[in-house]
Structure of EVE domain-containing protein:
Amino acid sequence: MRYWLMKSEPDAFGIDDLAARPGQTEPWDGVRNYQARNMMRDDMQPGDQILFYHSNCNPPGIVGIAEVARAAYPDHTAFDPDAKYHDPKSDPANPRWYMVDVRYVRHLRRQITLAELKAHADGALQDFPLVRRGNRLSIMPVEPAQWDFILGLEGP
DNA sequence: GCCAACGTTGGC
DNA sequence: GCCAACGTTGGC
């Protein structure tokens, strides 16, 4: 089992939206970045655990935990001319983009803000992409030690 | 709203 | 294959 962090804008789809579908799965569509796609397609497996991160909000940070419910399959929204993330270069015979399904696990007892994570950028989270400058990856791997450290910040 | 950082595109 | 232009991300 692996650990991941996935970013979402709460205005579009936040942890509360995911929690509103208890036990159900939600497609994580719209990923249009090759690095993120490759990780989803090649490395994500059902049961993998996900830090759910809120971006483009105040304050940004980790707000909950989700899990991978289904391994990668073609992102059909790329085929749809009316979809927001339509990509004419992707078609069913040769899909360019993939998505996974995720499932709500729980809210964190408190949000762990980006500022708090950055306070450990020279320590336990030294190699964590999120706290490095200019990071724009919407999906990133989390090492087991990083996962434990971050959840340790959550407190009782 | 600003803007730094970064990925993608396309001319050459 | 280089690289300038452009678009997007996302913190602030």
About this structure: Chain A has a mean pLDDT of 94.
